[in-house]
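[job 4471] stage=fold_predict status=RUNNING
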Amino acid sequence: MDLWDFLNPCIPADHSRQMTAPAVLERTVKKGLIPPCRTILDFGCGNGRSIDLFSKLLPDAEWTGVDIENSPEVDSRTRDDGNFVTYDGESLPFPDASFDLVYSYQVLEHVRRPETVLHEIARCMTTDGLFIGQTSQFEPYHSYSLWNFTIYGFKKIMEDAGFRLHELRPGIDGFTLMRRTYENRPPYLNKYFSKESPINQEIELIEEKKSVKQQNFRKLWFSGQFTWVATLSL
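[job 4471] inference complete, writing structure tokens
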């Protein structure tokens, strides 16, 4: 099986715009695709910034943030308006089927044993729960990062952990992300996190006669970061 065949079931056909996890989350909520949501886990919550996002999108749900004891993001935390939990980096301190929605924004590349943690996330999700997130594929070292995931490898470890990937979407392209680090994060490149980055723009021009799925596939191949939506594979 080649990469296209392997990824085809989770490559979206609705549009080929690059996305971020917050944007995917908001779109999923607005389309009514979130199951009845009573409990939310922000895995790798850092400074707790997702509290504001979920307060707007799912105000009636109970938010819990979990993270390791020390990281640059955790150390920058100043807010105390969330249920913040510290864990050992492997075993999540929650009962089985505790959360209807798990959210993870640029975290898995910092996790020492991602496959172990993915199994733990699966254990803590309700049977009809949703897992939405974003991680790195071609991103230079940052903030104690340990890994970059290929889109092939990510799908493999997600499936091994008991997840079914419903969609993978491209984020900022890897070339732009590398240039941003090479140039010491100049502000002029920050706009490409929220608008089509240069290589993604080029792909759209070159591949304009191809299907949306094919455009997404090409962008995913060169993505610096990518997003996902998954459920448990029951």
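[job 4471] summary: The two ends are 24 Å apart (CA to CA).
[job 4471] exit 0
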